[in-house]
Amino acid sequence: MKTKPLSFILIVxxxxxxxxxxxxxxxxACKFDNYQVEVLSNAxxxxxxxxxxxxxxxxxxxxINNEGQDRKPYVLTARHCITNSGLDVNLTDxxxxxxxxxxxxxxxxxxxxxxxxxxxxxxxxxxxIFRAAHxxxxxxxxxxxxxxxxxxxxxxxxxRSRLSESSGSLTSIAHPNGDPQKYGRGHKATAxxxxxWKYTITWDEGxxxxxxxxxxxxxxxxxxxxIGMLSNGNPGGQGDYGKVSTAWNSNSDNAKQLxxxxxxxxxxxxxGTLIPMExxxxxxxxxxxxxxxxxxxxxxxxxxxxxxxxGLSIVSxxxxxxxxxxxxxxxxxxxIKATYGPTTRTKDVYYGTPDVSNIxxxxxxxxxxxxxxxxxxxxxxxxxxQKLTMANVTGYVDWHPSSSYGYSTGQYFSxxxxxxxxxxxxxxxxxxxxxxxxxxxxxxVFAAYSGxxxxxxxxxxxxxxRFDNTEYLETLPEEINLYNEKSTIPIKTFNIxxxxxxxxxxxxxxxxxxxxxxxxxxxxHITPNKLDKKNIDKIRVVLK
Length: 544
Hints:
Layout: H1 6-24, H2 35-41, E1 44-50, E2 56-64, E3 74-78, H3 93-102, E4 104-107, E5 123-126, E6 128-134, E7 139-144, E8 160-161, E9 170-174, E10 182-186, E11 190-191, E12 198-205, E13 218-220, E14 226-234, E15 238-243, H4 244-247, H5 259-262, E16 270-271, E17 290-294, E18 305-308, E19 312-317, E20 321-326, E21 332-340, E22 343-351, E23 360-361, E24 365-366, E25 370-373, E26 378-382, H6 385-390, E27 407-409, E28 415-419, E29 425-435, E30 438-448, E31 452-455, E32 462-467, E33 479-484, E34 492-495, H7 496-501, E35 509-513, E36 520-527, E37 537-543
């Protein structure tokens, strides 16, 4: 038996390891299609400290919001990251001083994209103030030293919960092995029977999220709020997380609880994430009018760079606000963009009258002014509900149908359901939608392909082909051919476009003169036009 060379075996092993690593520890950027993940990623940091005994420690942490929402830079992490020994119930002054002097917080340490080729631009802050720690829940709360303030405005302050949010899909973002941010996803958190201070999580994706260096990394509920911080990892892809709920005020000492620092007055059960670069609401912008977008959570002395997409233009701007207008006669969805460093936050805004240009039917086909459809089949014609909502429409869509076929349905009556008999037509004249900027109109026709019949059969002199409707060429077949039953060459050919243009249809009838043809059996082939998907109709005709 021929053996494989050692180099080949090593390549195979390396490939398996790389694939397993990518699978078990996804880069957080792979999940940025989920806006919540992207927002929380900007609150997670890598923490490096030198302990009082001289040992170096690398952990993860989360910038966390407080009831004042004043951007106080509290960072929640694991207590064992700052102690000389994980078994010390009480921290010494030297341990606290060591972490205060040596702490280093690095944010945005992640890959720019899922492939993980280029690192993001990081920002690092030095030194801290020790605030609280608790042995049993293994939490530590540090405050980034004031000489670092203000923090970069694109860093977010994660929400947290001390209530029961341990079911559903749970996630974590951390720095296992000190690497750029990784992502983990698990299911229901189970309270430990021997250690009621902690949850145990089994990870369904990203098992390595509990590796060394991830200690202190946040556990997020399905609502994106911190409910725990990693204490240690277990074999089999599990992790133990100290509970925020038990760390809240289980000890009366302010230096051993979270409540005193995060919600001393209101004792709030949960809080949402504070996003300094999140723009306030903006109603739709009418042509030549202005609207102002603000960053209400931006810190004093901070500023961003503003920009807008085509269709909008900037009238004026300040460090935390921008006033924009829209171009006359334009309508649609635009974006107001606030940029700081590598981060851009966008706000979708609608400008102008409602958009009736992009109407779809039959699962995504673009509707034109004239549309030709299969008869006796339901066709669902739709406007974009999301755009109608953004445009702040003031009433229902008025379809103005010209016949009794079909009916309006859906939110704002944004859909019209119709089934047309063969050859029949429905005219929307016009489709009309109104918002505070004005009214948009669009006329549109839907016509069903025409059916037909032939008579008489048998025939002596004139064979009539009768269509349901000859008003629209596109509803008619492309060609009609008459064949002798023993020939493959047509005896008579009628190009329907020429017939239509020559006005040879009389009362929807096409007359075919057959009196001079030999008596016998023939076939009439009716070829549908290129828009119609039906097959060629082949009808036996008897000349008597």
